[in-house]
Amino acid sequence: MIIEARPILESIDPExxxxxxxxxxxxxxxxxxSSSTAAxxxxxxxxxxxxxxxxxxxAQAPSDVLDVLQFALLLEYLEAEFYQRGVAAxxxxxxxxxxxxTTISGHETIHVTALxxxxxxxxxxxxxxxxxxxxxxGNVAGFNFAAGQYETFKVLAMAFEDTxxxxxxxxxxxxxxxxAALSAxxxxxxxxxxxxxEIRRLRGKKAWISxxxxxxxxxxxxxxxxxxxxxLQGGLMLSTLPGYSANGGSTAGTEAFDEPLSKAEVTxxxxxxxx
Length: 275
Prior knowledge:
- A hairpin with a 2-residue loop joins β1 (232-233) and β2 (236-237).
- The longest helix is centred in the first third of the chain and has 27 residues, at 62-88.
- The protein has helices spanning 14-28, 35-43, 46-58, 62-88, 98-121, 150-171, 179-202, 249-255, 263-270; strands at 232-233, 236-237.
- It has a two-stranded antiparallel sheet with strand order 1-2.
- By secondary structure, it is mostly helical.
- The chain has 9 helices and 2 strands.
């Protein structure tokens, strides 16, 4: 058996190397490192030191992972209760669409159960479900899941699902050190995207977001779409790529990529719905 000899640096993921390069610069300038990493560097044990730096650069503290899971649980509580109340309401959802929303409701309830179980398995107490105000502190005046309010119900559903897609995308990097949590979050993320596309279809909207347009949603929802006009991806400006203009220019470019939302941005979006 022939084993190809490769320099150690060629066997390391490029993203880790980029992070290590940044940390090396910090060390060269006297930045503090963990005592164990500093000792390894002092001993000149390069392979072991690189591993220690990689762990230092990428590992997530359990509290950080739990913070993401608890935050995701809050979002799922919001969606689960919204759909449960909608499906239970008499005369709210058109008969032709009831199966769709019953299915989505079931998905969101399962998300809640799964996240609570994952949090419990990590030795923490799941966040208690708060009370919700689906008028968003009066921004959706008079909404109470009554008959004749189906259009408003779909508007809110679109807002919640579009928020969920970007929220999970924004928190995924914080879970990189926990494979199980990251896998669960990404599995939910893709289903939230399917929900968003289906609800947009029911509303007669395209499934993707153009620029930072909120379509016909009320002004208070603009934060859900802020930043979606970004054309810089992976360090490349889309407008400089071959064929960009011929394929729809900036409109198509922003539609082709979804942007993340930070925890602070999502918190600002959902706070009006917290009673």
